[in-house]
Amino acid sequence: MPFEIILFVFFALIAAVSSVVMVTRPNPVMSAIFLVINFFALAGLYLLLHAQFISVVQVIVYAGAIMVLFLFVLMLLNSKSEQKLLSGQKKIKVFAIVLAAFVFIQIAYLIFFSSPSRSLSPDVAASIKAGTVEEIGRQLYTGYILPFEAAGFLLLAATIGALVLAKKKFN
Amino acid sequence: MQNHFQEIYNVLPLVLVACGVFLSVVIEIGSVKSEKILPWFSVLVFLGTSLFSVFNLNNCGTAYNNMLSYGGNVFIFYSLFNLAAALTVLSSMEYIKKYGSYFGEYYILLLSSVLGMMLMAGARDLFMVFIGLELMSICFYVLAGINRKKQNANEASLKYFLLGSFATGFVVYGIALIFGTAHTTSLEVIVSNFGSLSHNLLFVTGMLLFLVGFSFKIAAFPFHMWVPDVYQGSATTVSGLMSTGGKAAAFSVLLIALGAVFPGNAANVFRPYFAAIAAFSMLYGSIVAISQNNLKRMLAYSSIAHAGYMAIGLAAGNRESVAGIMFYLVAYTFMNLGAFGIIAMVEGADDTNLELKDYIGLSQRHPLLSALMALFMFSLSGLPPFAGFFGKYYVFISAIKADLTWLAILGVVSSVISVYFYLRVIVYMYFKEPEPEALPVHNNANGVLAVVISAILVVMFGIFPGTLINLITSYLR
Prior knowledge:
heterodimer, A: mainly alpha, globular, B: mainly alpha, two-stranded antiparallel sheet
């Protein structure tokens, strides 16, 4: 049990720190690399929650495929370090940080206060079974067939949208 | 096997539009004449779906493991979205030629966005809400920038995309917290346990984040920053659909998610939130619209104000308010689509003819259009006997019944303020001396047809409001 907690703290710290670093880097390539680290840490957290399939997919699809595409695009665009848009607007920056910290403290307090995991069953075997490929596949094609199909239309619309905005023909 | 066919028949409106999406992709790829076929094909799909929904109102129930409900008020929403989209297509046909953005994909995206709206309005599960919301939004992000040569269209598209994604983040985080406390994504279960769950602060936080995300989509006050720029920069017809169909879909989700509040099964813990956004949206929208000279921008602020009037109903939270909001959405859809349709026709290429002064003397150049514009402006400002008046009337009555008289009074005050900028358009059209070098308005049969249909519906719902409101009320549980 303590080993799980140590692992959790380890992954959680990496995830939190890397996401903060990602947002604050001026160089987009560095941001992308820290995002990859963040995805790996999240995959570790999913594994701790017995979601093996999601964890693997997180590494293969997000950290692997999508982030490599991101990096390719960033390098092809050859963007210089982005101009510091907010450097002239100190007040907005300070206000944003204060507001974000306020909301963060509120929600963190609420989560500790109401501890939603208290009412969950600690049935480890069931939770391991729920995370397998078979179980996810069964759920996807029975109970959740309609959202699954609708997600297909979402992807189709996104593809067509990208095509419209990117295609060369103007007339 | 029988069961499968029955289930498909129950959700046939969705299947029709989905098939429409597929077929239009095939037509776009396969035919060189797709630019001529697709508009009429999509009008056909929209009208067919709308008619089917209207004739199957009494076939109520839920389908696919409680993922989706059909019949009743859901089908009224379906019919509304499809009619709105059909009218949008009619006024788009000539409009998108003006900007050289005559892509077949425009119609595919319109069909997909309507599919998203329908998934939202019928949703019985938070998954469906989220996927429907994203499907609709992604189509709108692209449609907003369909005039790719225009710089402000690009700006509108990007701005809408970035802020919209931000709002989606709120919705998803809210859903995560709701799932964490309710242990389910089924809205049926959440709604039936709403009373006990609303004592859990974390659930309330999740709901609040969810509501914040949707307040962005309905363009209510503190989350309205994107509205003027996006409505002004987007293609005019798309702005029309965004402000009507998009808003109606977001409201339908709010009505479903707060489903426990309206029959009075649970206390309306979100009343202060809705009362605040309602009051601020109404006053802000009406006051800022006064200083606008661009008509699209003016209608954008008016859209914020109308979101405020409808949010009064959410604050009131009783059965009358649900019916009132739905009636208001129907009325607002047709009067706003009509107004945007006329603007799209008067608009010249390259963003000309959009200012208030361009409408001087329209009554002589094009008497029919200016008469209809006057009708829509009267209806938007809420003067009887048009549909806009009864929308406001039902919502205000529901607020008074819920002891929110102050909110109803604020609504009346802001309506009075709004009369100024709506009637100013009429004054410019009829009572100002025209300048000789005014740009001509081209005749455009399909666009005029769309506007005339909207006008007929606005007048019809204004003269016989009881038919629709009784129909909606009869389907409320």
